[in-house]
Structures are given as structure tokens and as C-alpha cells.
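Hi Y.,

Following your request, here is the sequence exactly as I used it, all 478 residues.
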Amino acid sequence: MVKPLRTRALTLIIAATVFHGCATPAAYYHNMNSLVAAGRYGEAAAAGEQSRQKVYGRKNELLYHLDRGFLLHIAGSYAESNEAFENAKRVANEHFTKSVTAEASTLLVSDNMRPYYGEDFERALIHVFCALNYVLMGRESEALVEARQVDHFLKTLRTNYNHKSGYTEDAFARYLMGMIYENQGAVNDAYISYYKALENYDSYAAVYGVPVPKKLIADTFRTARALGFSDDVRALEKKWGKVEAPAPDAGCGEVVVIGYNGLAPVKVDSFFEISFGRAWSYVEAADVEGEEEEQVEQARAIARNILAEEQVRMAFPKYVPAEYRVSVIDASVISNSGAAPYDDKAETVENIGALAKTTLAGRIARVRVRTIIRAAVKFALTHNISRSVAKNSNDELLGWLVKKTLSIASTATELSDKRSWRSLPDTISMARLTAPAGACRLSLTMRDAAGAAVGTSTIENVTVRPGKKTFIIIRAVN
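Below is the corresponding structure, written out as C-alpha cells. Let me know if you'd prefer a different format.
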């Protein structure tokens, strides 16, 4: 028996809607994370290049450049990494400028259909990684340019755009830039950066769970005294007590180990539905996990919609953390000169996972308002169109079919914007070790929260420069 034309049309529309919504980059990111965990960073970057059109596409061009830039950064391809990050800066600025002017005219467009311009903290981190790339290439004067750019960016967040997300400063960026300034002998700029970092870390403990790094306090005191800022020193002592921070011994330098730990949390959909009608409990019998969850959830939503008399569905993003074991990194420098080892335990200096969650929480109210308005407008349009079709065609069944088709399409495509910089670590830690100038060996032990060793690493022939800081990058995913 041949189906009536209207039923066949409805079936085709529903099928097209379902299969259109099934495409997912989950497999790509799973493969990328596996390659990173295995230390195959260059292969991960190459896989991203091959998947540029299929996984990222035009509206996610920024994410392509961000992932590529970071993967090349940890692979040691610093020049190529900065090429990608320069592209990321350009795309982020272009998309952000367009989004400001288009905000009012795109209310009915789902957020995930817009070109992605990045979270505020993501755009700040571009400058951080660029600066590190320049330092690691020995081009420290260009790293200072990045230091000034991140300062300008943070000032812009506070003034020009009246951001209310809560993220208008980055303590780690300030801390790192202070060290870069000091490496170049710009002690006054270093002190300003250290002082701003200290101010921001003072609030980080409560907001992001990151305590003030002890060595930053010493840096701030040391540079203030070197500049003869006696009033500032007294103010610092009133806040932090008397801190002894002698200048490094002549003939010594410092090894700075920056650890990228774990994987940043991932955004998922958090659904809210208002549905009336007959029961659809049999649809809920399916029990699935992993990558199939989103597809089955879409099927459930469509089934509920078919059975419901009226339904409005809304989706909001939320972050889900990724599990990993590395909590602390113990570092030890063994000089070839035969001096005693220099040890330090890394401190957490940036909690990217907490930054991401707090930033989203700061703007989720605006996301919800837009989502609710969009759902209400689409609901009203669906009813108006179906009534008009029924009236003009004098066919109530056709009107019902149109209503259900539009409603199902609306439900299936109502997904939140879950895009984020997925290759980022969850936290950044830092160990700082004074050592005699010359060649040395760096020994690292990764430990879990209970203190048990979960991995070790040794880096040979690290060169320590007198009076300078030498930066080493470590990636620990598991």
C-alpha cells in the first residue's frame, strides 16, 4: 500500500532532521586525546589538518586554529604554532566584531549556528602560548609584544565591552609576563605584572581554587626592593608579612617547568522540556552510554513530540569534567657540575576548568533568556503557520502535519552551543628551580592526589643561563 503523499513527506522531513543532527566530532576528539596521551602531538596536529573541513568547517574556523596552535606548541613546533595562533587572533577578532553588530538581528538563530569567536579566557590564552613559543625559540623581545597584547586585551574586557562574565583578569598571564619582562631586564614592567598577578591570585583561591603561588610573593617583594619602592614594600608587608626574597646567587639561573595537566572540561547539553500529552515512557526504556547518548536523546525527543499535544524544548550548555590522575609534579635539577640536586614541587597557577565553568556561569543567564525567547517565538510561529495552512487548505489533517513537522524539526535542532577549545589542559602547574649555570638534567615525577607516583620523565642537557629563566613544557594527560 502506497503511503499518502503528506505522510511520506512528513517521514522524509523527520528522517532528514534526525540524520542531520547525528553528525558528531566525538570520534575525532577521542582520537586526538588518545594521540596526545601517547605523546604523538605532531600526529594529532596532522589529524586536525586532515579534518579541517569535515570536523571544524567554516563557522568553527577559530577552533581549528586554536587546536592546531596548541598541539604544535606541545609538539615543539613553535614557529608553526604561532602561525596558527596569529590566524586564531585574526578570526576571533573578526567573528567577535560581527557578533556584536548582529546580536539583535539573529535571535531566532541557535547559538551553535554562529561562527565561534571564543570565550574571553580562551582569547587571553592565545597570547600566553604565543609568548611561551617565542621564549622557547629564543625570541624574547617578541614575547614582550605578546605580554603587552594580553595586557591590552584584559584592559579592553574591563572597559570597552562592559563584560559581566566575571573574567576580566588572568593571574597566570600576569605572572608569566612578569617573568618574561624580568628575563629581559625590564624590572619595572616585571614588578607591575607581578603586583597585578598577586592582586588577582588573592581572589583566585575562592573563585577558582588556586592559592597564591609562594614564589610570586617573593618575586613581588624582590622587584619592589630592587626598584627602591619603599612605600610599596611597606604596603606589601602589611598584607603579606615580612618576606625575605634575596636576589639569586651570581652564576645561577632558574629552570621553570610548566606542566599542562589533564584535559579541559567538555560542554554538553542540559535539556529542559515542557510537554503535555499521552505517555511516552516506552521511549525511555533505552539505556545507552557514550557517543550514542546524544543520538538516542534526539530520538526520544522526537518521539515525545509526536505523542505530545504541545511541547517546548530548550537546551542549555554545561561543563562536564574529564578525569585524570596527575595532580602534582615533583621536579629535580641535577647539575653536571656535581652540585646537590635542587628540588621543587609544582604549584597550580591556572585552573582552566574552573575558569571555563565560572565564565559560562557568568553569562548563562543571557544564554537562557535568548534560548527561552527563541523557543517561545518558534512555538508561536509553528502554531500560526499550521492554523493558516489548515484554514487556507480547509484540511485540518494537513495543518496538523505541518504543525508536527515544524515542531519536530524545532525540537531536533534545539541544541546548545557546546563548542570550546578542546585540546586545552584542565590545569597549568609551575615548578621553579634555582641551579648553577651550565648543563643539567631535569627529573620529573607525576603524582596523583594521594601522592602516589603515576609517571616519571627525564630531560637531558637542559641549559641554565646565569641570571636568566629557562622554560620547559610538560604535557600530562592521564
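Confidence is low (pLDDT under 50) at residues 1-23, 276-283.

Thanks again,
Q.
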